[in-house]
Structure prediction request, 176 residues.
Amino acid sequence: MMKRCLLAAAFIALVAAHGAMAGPEDFHPDGLIKGYGKFADVPAAKPLPADTRFKVAMDVVDGGVTGEVNSIFAIAAGFINLQHANGIPPEQVDIALVVHGPAHRDLLNDKAYGGDNPNAELLEILQAYNVKVLYCGQNAVKNDVAAKDLLPGVEMTHSATTTHVLLQQQGYSLRP
Prediction:
């Protein structure tokens, strides 16, 4: 019991010495992509070299929930916002969204979606920052999705696996 009390006291002293612990309220959607892509400032982090270049492939399989923005699309926006806040311009951030599985619904135009697709605005913004939106052709065939059903700028590929292999050969790192 005494040991637990000492550990608790040490933890409280540590928190008091370093300020309150961070929480969800420390994440904000400020940045280039307003309203999307929350991130937290980390003042203690070592600065990134100005010539840093990112090439990130994000696997997008979950999603397709009616009325919801895909969380991986929001993470892509947050990654751009975070790097920009740390001195890396968006021209040095290459992101490829590799979409398959239930997430395919998030790529559908309003007609194919069956109403307003809440992902359309964010995907248009991301594409303005040169984010590639790559859709698995195998998934398209399985779900009877034609190119005419997709939002503008979505590129149909042979398969998600093929796309990931090709992106890795081009120097992209996978963010699962």
Remarks:
- Confidence is low (pLDDT under 50) at residues 4-20.
